[in-house]
Amino acid sequence: MQSVSDPLNLLHEDGSWFARAHELRLWVVSCDASLRNPVLALVPKLEFHADNQSAWPLLLDAHTKADDGWQLRANALAADWARRVEAFAKEGIAQGPVKAAQGPTAFRTAAAVITESMVAPLAGLVIVLAPTIVQHADRLESDLTALMGDPALQKCRWVLVIDLDVAPPQTLIDALGPQRALVTRCRIDPAQQSRDLSAMLAGD
Questions:
Q1: At CB < 8 A and 24+ separation, what contacts does 174-177 make?
Q2: Measured between alpha carbons, how far is 61 from 136 in angstroms, rounded to an integer?
Q3: How far apart are CA 31 and CA 51, in angstroms?
Q4: Helical axes 190-202 vs 2-20, angle rounded to 10°
Q5: What is the sign of the dihedral through the CA atoms of 108, 148, 11 and 120?
Q6: What is the pTM of this model?
Q7: Which of 27, 98, 122, 195 could form a disulfide with 18 if both were Cys (CB 3.0 to 4.6 A apart)?
């Protein structure tokens, strides 16, 4: 249906540009809840874009008021990297190992160690943050701003996938500007959805 294919085509176009334009540091994808699964299927596949040399770990841990999820993300990032180390070893390439860090700076530590220990053909990380729940968007923005400003994480670029009803990190987006931040609204057009439904009922 065109109501679904149109936003996903836009996602692919913007994602291809993000993979190609390495000066972009942040890609924010706001999507309809009904499109979340196809979005999360498509975004990590951009790791295989011809102009990409980075690993694209997908981190789904929730960001709630009770738990910001960064320790869980640190664990998931280390586990993702361990799988990559094992895969590269089978090809005779020794990527540097990393263990999950602990404590309030666990995620920052894990990401920094990974980017410093990786060798060609990899160069840097594109960290895909796609929290299943966001209860405090301002706090998430503050966390992301701090991570992006950390000198030890300058080899990282960032993708943030959020539902349309979650406030985007607008202050951060504005501070980065259009040369370093890309925003994609991946939503279903109700009018097109209605036309698709009418065509289905008519048997077209």
A1: 175/145, 176/25, 176/26
A2: 14
A3: 25
A4: 130
A5: negative
A6: 0.92
A7: 27
Task: Spell out the per-residue pLDDT of the chain, length 204, in tens.
Answer: 665 788 899 999 999 999 999 999 999 999 999 999 999 999 999 999 999 999 999 999 999 999 999 999 999 999 999 999 999 999 999 999 888 788 889 999 999 999 999 999 999 999 999 999 999 999 999 999 999 999 999 999 999 999 999 999 999 999 999 999 999 999 876 555 555 455 566 665
Q: What angle do CA 64, 187, 13 make, to 5 degrees?
A: 105
Q: Which residue has the tokens 């994609």?
A: 184
What's the rounded Cα separation, in Å, for the pair 108 and 18? Answer: 23
CB 151 within 8 A of CB 142: no
Is 80 in contact with 114 (CB distance < 8 Å)? no
CB 184 within 8 A of CB 14: yes
DSSP H helical ranges for the chain: 2-20, 36-42, 70-90, 106-117, 137-149, 170-176, 190-202
* 49-78 core/surface letters (b: 16 or more CB in 10 A; e: else): beebebbbbbbbbebeeeebbbbbbbbbbb
